[in-house]
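WARN no homologs supplied; continuing
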Amino acid sequence: MPVQHQWDYLFAIGTIFAGLDAFMIGANDVANSFATSVSSKSLSLKQAVLAAAVMEFLGAVLVGARVTSTIKDGIIPASAFQGNAGVQLLAFTCAIVASSTWLTIATRFSWPVSTTYSIVSSVLGVGIATGGWDAPEWGWNGGKGLATIFAGFGIAPGIAGGFGIVLYSLIKFGVLMRDDSTKWSLYTAPLVFFLVGAVLTMAIIFKGSPSLGLKDLPSGTMAAAIVGTASVIALLSVLFWLPFVHARVVKKDYTIRWYHFFLGPLLWKRIAPHDAGAHDFVPNYRLREENDLDTRTPAADNNSDSEKGDEKEKASDIQETPVPAAQPSNLASEVEAHPIEGPWILPKNLWIIARYRAYPWVYKTLTYGATVDIHALQAEKGKASAQRIAEVHARARQYPNDTEHLYSFLQVFTACTASFAHGANDVSNAIGPFSVIFQVWHTGEISGSRTPVPVWALAFGAGMLVIGLATYGYNIMRVLGNRITLHSPSRGFSMELSASITVILAAQYGIPVSTTMCIVGSTVGVSLCNGDWRATNWRAIGWIFLGWIMTVPIAATLSGCLMGILLNAPSF
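OK structure emitted
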């Protein structure tokens, strides 16, 4: 039972805004993690929401941090509260209120900001309001001080962009630009699966399992676990994945279903139908009509993909994808098919209102976030900027669908595992401060340097995170992905894996990074591999970077002013 009932209102406020903070982390942070998968058409928006719901929730509840740092990232020392539990409770309540408020504003205006930097800046503000300008750790402080915040603006996207360039260049020149790119993608698949397995295993060990303590294992044991897991994944890809995709893509067997995957090696002997190849059932990953860049042969591509960039200045070479004709509304047809006759209060009419008016409207409203056309929003169809987006896309080459289809599996695998690690680690941005609020309210004592996190709190945060993605994540996805550059499964896979590698290295060497900054940096890096700087929407990048910069002063000022006003308010 709680012992500090005089602070019930602070606990209630903290609970409400912690839920809002987790909601906005889902709408902002998780959305930008899955934006590449949705933009490249590897996943539909519904599939991305379902995958995130499962992986983020399981990551948070199963292996999420059971303890959290009371003073987030060592920004302010515990001594700043002078042993006063009430002041600590008020400080973290103000911090979570300020952080969630800023995330709400940023998400409303489609700014993909760093949720980690938001809560860190909010704690900075209450630290200054409580202990003065000398309270925060302004230096590097072992990679945990305030200097890391400003350094991260360049370090995270820079490193991720570098890895993106290296990884996508290997795929582009080693597979995509060869005469038979599908064959080469199958040849190199086990090696790629081994790399992905190793990287994602490290992501789970170093970032995605705080409660298991896997990162404290001996170096030999850890290395064996990484190599062993990657080897098993590569072996399974040879036994099951290769024959499955060979039957689908090479044999053109349109009778293959998802459950045939488990037949494994038996699929090598499966005979394709006599009309195999007549049915084009591989998804179409193309986002625009073909142009000269797409139809060029590999032999003509000894130089960059932008040799004909000047020719593309002609308006006739750059055309916006035509907007399809409006389709009749299903809701309107339902309404017309069931007209109300007589007084509306009649039982029959009440049923018609509830079943064919109210229910469809409520369902459409609640599911809008998972059914909206993200690609149309990213292309800004019908807006003045649509032509600029079309010009950016026209400078990026599109590769064969069969080859891109193989990388869609890898991209989904990478996205889901990274989502599991994200749920285990980043849900603490909302639940970490909330656990301090709960601990102080429940015990009446100041929280120490490490605070236990209840499992129900992790489940609460994970649930709100999933709801945020499902209902409002589209507002962030609309400004990422294809708004920055043309996406495809091979590009999206390179972006996500590069971001994961950056996060892993940062965790090992104490380099401050944000997953948001990593995915944007890797997106720019992969975009530069098109060989044309105009294949990147630099205006969109500028707005995103501005949102990162604005997070620190706005969140810190908001929390600091709120804390200062409440702390020094007159009483009687």
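The longest helix spans residues 8-39.
OK
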